[in-house]
Amino acid sequence: MHSLRIPKRHAAGHYRCWFKPSSIGDISISEQYGDALEGSSGGTGMKGATQRRLVVNLMQTGGLSLTASGRTVQIAPGTLSVRNAELPWEFSCLPGTRGHSMLLPYEMLAAAGLDQLPTLTLISQNAPEVRLLMGQLQLIRETRGELSPAGVRAAQESVLQLLVGTIMAQGVSADPAFRPSLRAAARHCVDSRLLDPDLSPAEIARALSVSVRTLHRAFADSDESLMAYARRRRLERAREELSTLGGRYTLSAVAARWHFSDASHFSRAFKRQFGETPSSVIR
User: Fold this and answer.
1) Are residues 134 and 21 in the same domain?
2) Quick check: is 178 in a domain?
3) CATH code, 114
4) What is the extent of the structural domain holding 102?
5) What is the pTM of this model?
6) Which residues of the chain have pLDDT under 50?
7) What span, in angstroms and rounded, lies between the C-alpha atoms of 188 and 230?
8) What is the pLDDT of residue 46?
């Protein structure tokens, strides 16, 4: 970080901050807290920058704003962010911002299976992969002084594998070049909540820690909108039930289960999708 400054609107009174650094092998890990701060980070001219590096942040309180190439992204508490430190970033922290960060060479992640350097990727801390990663980091911090050299190497490898797995499984990129990853994450979220009556773009966006606008933009160049995908998947699941459960349920019951307003609405949507009526697939 460089060009650090306190925003004028927060310049009066006391300023509080602390920083607890540690490391595991070639991975720098820190826990941080600070009041409002602005500045720059990253860039190829960064002091000591001889490698391509990634910065990983997990926001717990406060908030972080990142700007690069004229685009600004707001990172809320509860979000894991992964960004390319090769790029110059302008940042701004809200008062009381607290979180954890890691700095690590991209080559290490590439060797662990990450085949593309993300510009900026956002992941909800509720994702199981993120919970596992943070639990591993906490355990490493607690045992770091007791580990043998072989233990340090094993711990570093475990963090790398968990981080790569997290990015590949849950990554939601704020960069247009990575819209396919956002679409895949959104569809996965839809598939896991097909029975949820409150399923909506707003709920999916909230689960993925992106705005509804960003979510819709990701599907703008797709052949199928997000809710059209949800409707198709619900129809496919309903068709499976009708073909395997026979006449155990009425069409009205199946329609209600998969959130169609009534049996007639369900039958019309079913025929448009499959070219046959629901009753024709009952066995």
Assistant:
1) yes
2) no
3) 2.60.120.10
4) 2-173
5) 0.58
6) 46, 48-49
7) 10
8) 47
